[in-house]
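Cross-posting from the modeling subforum.

Setting up a comparison between two proteins and wanted a second pair of eyes on the formatting. Protein 1 (sequence, then structure tokens):
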Amino acid sequence: MWDAQYGTRAQLLGGLVVGAPSDLSSTFYNPAWLALEKQPGILLTTKAFEASSITSDEGIGPDGEFESSDISPSPGYFGGKFKTNIDDDEVSIAYSYMQRIQFEYNASGVRVDDNVTPPADGNLWFSGEAFKNVSLSEYWGGVSFAKKIGHNIYGGVTPFGALRNHTQRAQISGNGIDSDQNFAHYYDMAQFSYWHVRVLVKAGIAFDYEPVSFGFTLTTPSLGLFGDGSVHRDNSFARMDNSSPENPEPY
């Protein structure tokens, strides 16, 4: 969920740009490098695509394995930068908005016995369903400040606000009947949904000694502000005992 990269250089280098001058994506990787950018600019990334695959060897069924693959656009980034003077110091100010997470997961399974009716030897005829759907997205927006703090040394900070939306639904069913016509049914469904707003800070320091440059970035823990959510839960079980056909006993 956290493998998103922003900007062409960061995508080509797998995000390993904390210690190297980059583009406006420095607002996320290391805001200190913004102080080295001399010109105002705007960065918008929308054309990158990425392939993802999910594989599990613990699924339900004869093989117990499943796999899902997808090709979709990478999370987008939008940012801009300008310079200004504060108390006679030149300060670089930037803004950025990015999609940190876009995750969709859908799984389903249906089993139905081949026999239309239970065989006479007392075996159980069974049908069942199982479904799970997950949707998760998160967006960050922030304002960055960077300046020169020493000889070839630069510092920067980006306070971010983050919005997360998460919905998950699971469902399981059942149905069973044996050769004596005893019937049972089971149903279970759980669902939750929430949104949440929090704040965090990325602070960075950069050292530029051409041809060598390096840097460090610290990401603070998040501080939750507010949010809301709901939880839904269902349970059901039904059984019919036909040991006495004239007077079946429900449970």
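Protein 2 (same layout):
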Amino acid sequence: PLHEARDLEALLAPGERGERGARRWEVVRRVREALDPPARLVGSGSGGTPGVGFVCRAVDLDDAPALADRAPGTSVNDVLLAALHLTAARWNGAAGARCGRVGVMMPVNLRPSERFWEVVGNFASMVSISTHPADRDDLRTATAAVAAQTREIRREVRARGLFDLFEVAAGSRIGIKRLVARLLPVLGGERFIDTAVLSNLGRLAEPPSFGDDVPPELWFSPPCDRACSIGVGVITVGRSLMLSVRHRLEVFDRSAAQEFTDALVTRLTAAP
């Protein structure tokens, strides 16, 4: 029933006292993390007319040893996140730019397990995954740092903690909301905006068919803005990893976006 499906307070209520406390600490963690602003990708765009471009690559899973030979306890998504962290850091390093903390935003599906795959309604919350220079010696160390943050319990706590923050904000007076909106740019609101975003829809069980002579393809990408200027969308169709990079034209021209995307793919297809 619709009234049950949309009852987020009941759906996302903390299950036990320990979870309730951990969710409250999530607000503190995000504020503390914002004291160390995330790196911004060095671009080559015109800085003029806003817009977006797209770069698409299909990666054969048989040619991606980084995904197949990952460490126990890590997921494909962990490797994808780690590869994006490394690519962003190396990209800025090649341009001689500072690259301390890299933050990548990823959505977490908060639907209950019995309707996990339902597509009507937005039950996603965003979680920020960070790495620092000491975590990024190589893909293995970066994946370990990412996996420590994405383990199911900790990931769910982070995602639900953000919902709690929105609940507090929703109860504020309209004047306070407007004041906060005006003050955020002055107080450095971009500190809470990550370097990039990655959304992985997982494996599509039945690829769309448009005829026997048309190979199945499916592309999508999450939104991005001037600060978080790269949005990476991933979905597995058959034995192909369909990777689409959305980029802001003010920051990345097409040539730079293609170079960035190819560097990301290389990290997935290089020998361990």
